[in-house]
Amino acid sequence: MSRDVQGFRQKFGVIGPSTNTIVQPDFEAMRPYGVTNHYSRIFTPDTNAMSNESFIAGAKLIGQNTLEAVRSVLTCAPDHLVMGMSAVTFFDGRRGADAFQKEVEDLAGIGISIGSHACTAALQAYGGVRRLAVLSPYWPAMNEQVKLYFEDMGFEVVRDHAMQAKSWTGIAAITTAECAAALKSIDGDDVDAIVQVGTNLSMVRLAAAAELWLGKPVIAINTATYWHALRTRGFSERFGGMGRLLEDF
């Protein structure tokens, strides 16, 4: 088969909620020459009255609609899939993450990088990390699922903070100043690394800066997921200004 003129090195199929406006520009900023990203939107009704219950229900609905978006993006013949929604990859801990990945890969016939396992791989790349603090735009009930996952993977979640966005689109409106204050509030000498989840929260560049002033790994899930896709597919490019993960590993 002839090579794609622009994606001649690789074509990534990116799967993300239709309400998400952050993943697409984030992934484009990390895209090497000759690699192209092809975004497939998971239909996601927005809400203006988020709660613990509605967040969990909405995230599960996104999970149920994921395979339709996968089928759609497969028509452009991608080489690898990248999951641009994190909550569904944390449900039911390690077992749930493995089951989600297998379901998508069985349908697609190609691999997928998912946020939960990508964060674990990133933490392992840094090395020496056991105790975590977690920041999310989620509600507390969803943070419990994130904690369950990381505990299944052998980490201890010392602290977490759920920023409780009022809508799916509202996640993208959370400011850098609000995120910086939240990072400082969950940091401490008892924390080896901070992990930010929630792909519609804009944290790629802030996380990179925070590593400098906190002196420890600060992992933005969009960085971890795209890094995982690149390294899984054999790309060794390093990028400055986006944190040690893309600079050193």
Defining traits:
single chain; 249 residues; alpha/beta; Rossmann fold; 2 domains; four-stranded parallel beta sheet; 9 helices
Report on this structure:
The longest helix has 23 residues, at 52-74. With 249 residues, the protein is α/β, with parallel strands linked by helices. The mean pLDDT is 95. It has 9 helices and 8 strands. β3 (80-83), α3 and β4 form a beta-alpha-beta unit. The strands form 2 sheets. The chain has a 4-stranded parallel sheet. It starts with 9 loop residues before the first strand and ends with a helix. The chain folds into 2 domains: 10-116 and 223-241, Rossmann fold; 122-220, Rossmann fold (3-Layer(aba) Sandwich). It has helices at 23-29, 52-74, 93-108, 115-126, 140-152, 176-186, 204-214, 221-232, 244-248; strands at 10-17, 35-42, 80-83, 112-113, 131-136, 156-162, 193-196, 218-220. α4 crosses α8.
Assembly context of the chains: single chain
Structural class: alpha/beta
Count of structural domains: 2
CATH topology of the largest domain: Rossmann fold
Give the overall form: globular
* Element order: H for helix, E for strand: EHEHEHEHEHEHEHEHH
Q: Percent of residues in helical segments?
A: 40-55%
Number of strands: 8
CATH class of the largest domain: Alpha Beta
End-to-end distance, in Å? 32 Å
Biggest sheet details: 4 strands, parallel
**What topology, given as strand order, has the largest sheet?**
2-1-3-4
Q: Segments where pLDDT lies below 50 for 5+ residues?
A: none
CATH architecture descriptor text of the largest domain: 3-Layer(aba) Sandwich
Strand content: 15-25%
Count up the helices.
9
- Report the radius of gyration as a whole number of Å: 17 Å
